Amino acid sequence: MKNVKPEAICFFDMDGTLLTKEAEVSEKSLEALERLRANHIIPIIATGRTTPEIATKMELTGINSAIIMNGQAVIYEGKKVYEDILEPELMKRLTEEAKSQGVEACFYNDLKIRATSHNLLTKAHYDFLGEPMPIKDPAFFEKESINMALLLLESGDDYFKDRFPELQFVRNTPFSNDVLRKDSSKAKGIKKFLDICGYEDVPTYAFGDGNNDLEMFQAVHYGIAMENAVPALKAHAHFVTDSHNDEGIFKGLKHMGLI
């Protein structure tokens, strides 16, 4: 998949970065994305979410490429070009262990989200994200490919980490852990994207705010942290821009000379 190479590529985390606290994209950010494209720079979303959760924002921003589910799949110009599938046997064992602890799970691929059941934490998690609860289908992993799972729990993370050394459990909300392959990350998804497209020598930039953006910063030439970012990410940033509520995207892109 070889294309005319862009001048640069910018990867944008969503929650706490491209999105404001109201889960909106500001007018200045939309203007910045248009100016990026006019300068032959590709904007790409890099998120822990999957396609159904970001479809409206992709349409709004005009962004048609994304590293989704923390690197478990890559969408380029609307087409899936890479995915890591979690084995059905592994998902079955995870579900059984979760049930033994009174924990519900959700399963993700690039098209659907399904839940083993609904409880208060399921509602709390999706309310936190501003998304509806997924359809219940406890046997979904037996029917379709699964790229990422989610455990709904406020504590007890170590129980699962001890029993599933081949997986990683990333707490991204107070109500849940993302469940991924041990070596999966936004960084891995970025490297897969660059390799598939032949863009390894193109300058790369990333904007983020969370712990799951640390590896992403290590996979690009320049990492820009939001003012609201966790201290660890700021410590590894080339530049700290203003917060997601104070036009940090526009100001950061301006500072880096991209718009």
Note down, in words, how this protein is organized:
This protein folds into 2 domains: 8-83 and 184-255, Rossmann fold (3-Layer(aba) Sandwich); 88-181, Hypothetical Protein, Haloacid Dehalogenase-like Hydrolase, Chain: A, domain 2 (2-Layer Sandwich). It has an 8-stranded mixed sheet, sandwiched between helices. Strands 8-7-6-9-11-10 form a 6-stranded mixed sheet, with helices on both faces. The model has no long low-confidence stretch (mean pLDDT 95). It is globular. The longest helix has 13 residues, at 88-100. It has 259 residues and is of the alpha/beta class. It is built from 11 helices and 14 strands. Helices cover 36% and strands 24% of the residues. Helix 2 (27-38) runs parallel beside helix 11. It has helices at residues 14-18, 27-38, 51-61, 88-100, 120-129, 140-143, 157-163, 186-197, 214-219, 231-235, 248-255; strands spanning 8-12, 41-46, 66-68, 73-76, 79-83, 104-108, 113-115, 135-136, 148-152, 167-173, 176-181, 204-208, 222-225, 239-240.
Condensed summary:
The chain contains eleven helices and 14 strands. By secondary structure, the chain is α/β, with parallel strands linked by helices.
